[in-house]
User: Which sequence fits this backbone?
């Protein structure tokens, strides 16, 4: 029994109406479910887990309104968050938004009907009924907003994941899976773009085709896994040795291509010499030491070809000419001026 000095317990708008609503919480949930079944579901059918969770949330939301009528205590963030979990579950199951929104609207209508019935039965004043109806409408509106936010967050996350997947697919389509360098598809696009730029700006363009000499011996003696690691390292060396505007691509096997926009023949030969030196530096991979050399062919636009295939073919011929002479560098014949030639280090 409370003593005279104890504070009076808090009261809500109408405890009697709240108790009456609380006693009918299960009935309210059942009525909502029955009315929802008349509409059927659009799109994906909900899981048994979602259906059970939805029923529990309907029952609990009704009890929260009843408690507020009795004590004046509003739902806290944890309680509202638990109710909102139904919206997150619906989003994860990719349920149709109208299906989920209908739950809140039908729950609102059922509770308003029950409140009118119980207010008349217990003799609640109009002010208490109005306050209860307002609370129900606000609860439904708040639930709808939290649910739509859940859907929005889920679809934003899904869109971001899809964009990442598209980006990964684009990367896989345009880049060599071993070295991460441009592959043949991206190489052709870069060379075509460089040709268009060269025509527009009357600027030079050079293409280097690099073939490693001695790589087969490494593969045969140390294994393909070691050979792959060597290709990754040498591809990284090439990328570090050129400008950001240049393109390094792997054609496959141990062949690489370097596209040099705005680069004339003499400068291209100088860059090729630098790359030969870079590639010939000793390698230490997984405690194994080795060294390689390379053959490089140079083709210049438009002297050796007016399109991508012609330029690459000319560079390929020059590379094999250099390889036949012991490796090193060779410019495709047919240019005016002296032929560039240098041997790579063993």
Assistant:
């Amino acid at each position: 029994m409370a003593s005279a000095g104890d504070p009076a317990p808090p009261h809500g708008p109408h405890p009697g109406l709240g108790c009456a609503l609380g006693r009918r919480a299960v009935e309210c949930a059942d009525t909502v479910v029955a009315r929802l079944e008349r509409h059927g579901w659009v799109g994906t059918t909900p899981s048994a887990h979602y259906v059970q969770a939805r029923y529990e949330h309907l029952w609990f939301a009704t009890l929260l309104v009843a408690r507020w009528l009795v004590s004046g205590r509003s739902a806290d963030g944890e309680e509202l968050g638990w109710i909102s979990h139904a919206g997150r579950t619906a989003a994860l199951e990719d349920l149709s938004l109208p299906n989920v929104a209908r739950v809140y609207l039908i729950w609102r209508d059922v509770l308003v009907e029950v409140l009118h019935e119980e207010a008349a039965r217990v003799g609640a004043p109009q002010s208490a009924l109005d306050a209860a109806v307002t609370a129900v409408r606000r609860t439904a509106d708040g639930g709808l907003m939290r649910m739509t936010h859940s859907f929005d967050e889920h679809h934003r996350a899904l869109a971001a994941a899809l964009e990442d997947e598209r980006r990964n697919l684009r990367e896989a389509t345009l880049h060599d899976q071993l070295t991460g360098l441009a592959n043949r598809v991206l190489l052709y696009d870069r060379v075509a773009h460089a040709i268009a730029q060269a025509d527009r700006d009357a600027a030079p363009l050079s293409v280097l085709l690099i073939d490693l000499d001695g790589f087969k011996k490494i593969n045969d003696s140390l294994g393909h896994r070691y050979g792959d690691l060597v290709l990754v390292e040498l591809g990284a060396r090439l990328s570090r040795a050129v400008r950001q505007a240049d393109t390094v691509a792997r054609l496959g096997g141990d062949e690489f291509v370097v596209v040099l926009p705005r680069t004339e023949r003499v400068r291209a030969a100088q860059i090729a010499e630098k790359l030969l030196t870079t590639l010939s530096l000793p390698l230490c991979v997984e405690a194994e030491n080795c060294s390689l050399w390379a053959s490089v062919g140079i083709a210049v636009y438009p002297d050796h070809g007016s399109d991508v295939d012609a330029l690459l073919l000319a560079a390929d011929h020059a590379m094999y000419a250099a390889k036949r002479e012991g490796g090193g560098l060779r410019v495709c014949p047919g240019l005016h001026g002296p032929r560039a030639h240098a041997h790579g280090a063993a």
